[in-house]
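user: can you give me the structure for this one chain? tokens are fine.
assistant: on it. calling the predictor now.
[tool input]
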Amino acid sequence: SPLENENVPQCDGLILGGGYPELYADILEKNTGTLNSVKECVESGVPCIAECGGFMYLHDTIFDSEKKPYKMAGVIHAGCMKKERLVRFGYLTLNSKTDSFLKKGETIRGHEFHYYDSEDNGECAIAKKPVGTKSWECVHAGSDHWWGFAHLSYYSNPKFAEKFAEACRSYKINKIAEKK
């Protein structure tokens, strides 16, 4: 638990789910063991999915509602700050612009509900609302990661979860091979 200052256990994949890190920013910032452990894990190539609060946790800084900065994991070199109202709300479809856990052009559905926004939401996917024409760039993605504000619906594209599991297996196999 990042609230208990625990290190990431040895693993072959990491999912940083939602939550409200802004409510615990002071505790999270003090737990440097966890912050450093998450950063080392991600930078070593452990496959990682980060959604909403987990995405915020990967940033350099989270600013609270009084604009006080709190250091986070420092994987994404940007800050997250509170906005006056909901930033993006509702269901969406993400269309991948790059090969990652999705092939370029594949989609996955999700939803967003947050008052915080990032200085760097990424540009590896296009999010589109199901009704109307509203769309925006988002998501940091690569062969070993997918990070963004959207909470994903894995049932909408099971290949996404399969590709993540495949990346975890490959990471483990490579780790075993390196030890020999």
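assistant: here you go. The first strand starts at residue 14 and ends at 16. The CA atoms of residues 83 and 135 lie 19 Å apart.
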